[in-house]
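Exercise 7b. Backbone tokens:
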């Protein structure tokens, strides 16, 4: 069975270090995974890129650019902001960006995406799981390939990728070598063989656990926060590597 790449969604520098140390192929750098992920700070992008380059992994950091929680129907002003963040991520050394936009009819916003690809100026572009709620998902995949998107991140339109395996398989077959299909959505190491059997080029997981810190006081929110679980990353990498053994 072909061995897919493994991408880990991380929210902090420790997550970057873990993903590098445990042998992940790349990361999606973001914050606020509890709401699906938001754009990380410029400082986090810069430091993550430095860690990756020091490890000889120049294209390791792919930056999620999503300005807010909620849906993906963005105003013109929001698209301008996303484009600016894409250009900033590129200037700060990102190896790729992760974007997505729908229109008012929940169809993929191809003109908006084209503007973001132009802003990426040669970086790898991944279209994120907005594809899973797009009304025209199946038709949009080849259109995204034509627009210059390198890969799509998808659960096969199911709540979890393991439940969308047949759609993933169909999209892989339909895409051919025009666009990569990366499976993501509730994946753990035990599901990787079944998902990889669909022929996906990559698997994406957050591999996170909850940590309880000191009380943050009034206005600081709950003391719990999520961070990357090194053991979960290690198990996922081992599961992927075992596919070729």
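Sequence design result:
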């Amino acid at each position: 069975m072909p061995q897919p790449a493994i991408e880990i969604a991380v929210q902090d520098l420790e997550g970057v270090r873990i993903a590098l140390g445990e042998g992940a192929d790349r990361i999606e750098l973001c914050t606020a995974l509890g709401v699906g992920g938001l754009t990380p700070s410029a400082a986090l992008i810069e430091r993550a890129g430095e860690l990756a380059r020091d490890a000889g992994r120049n294209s390791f950091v792919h930056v999620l650019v999503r300005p807010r929680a909620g849906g993906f129907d963005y105003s013109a002003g929001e698209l301008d902001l996303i484009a600016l963040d894409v250009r900033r991520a590129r200037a700060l050394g990102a190896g790729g960006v992760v974007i997505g936009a729908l229109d008012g009819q929940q169809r993929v916003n191809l003109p908006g995406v084209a503007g973001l690809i132009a802003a990426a100026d040669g970086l790898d572009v991944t279209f994120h799981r907005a594809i899973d709620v797009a009304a025209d998902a199946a038709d949009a995949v080849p259109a995204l390939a034509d627009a210059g998107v390198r890969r799509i991140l998808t659960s096969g339109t199911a709540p979890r990728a393991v439940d969308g395996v047949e759609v993933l398989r169909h999209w892989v077959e339909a895409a051919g070598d025009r666009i990569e299909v990366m499976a993501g959505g509730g994946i753990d190491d035990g599901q990787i063989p079944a998902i990889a059997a669909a022929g996906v080029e990559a698997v994406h997981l957050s591999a996170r656990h909850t940590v309880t810190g000191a009380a943050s006081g009034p206005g600081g929110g709950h003391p719990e926060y999520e961070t990357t679980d090194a053991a979960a990353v290690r198990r996922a990498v081992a599961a992927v590597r075992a596919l070729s053994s």
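Instructor comment: The longest strand covers residues 5-10. The beta strands are 5-10, 26-29, 61-64, 96-99, 124-127, 151-154, 180-184, 202-205, 208-212, 224-228.
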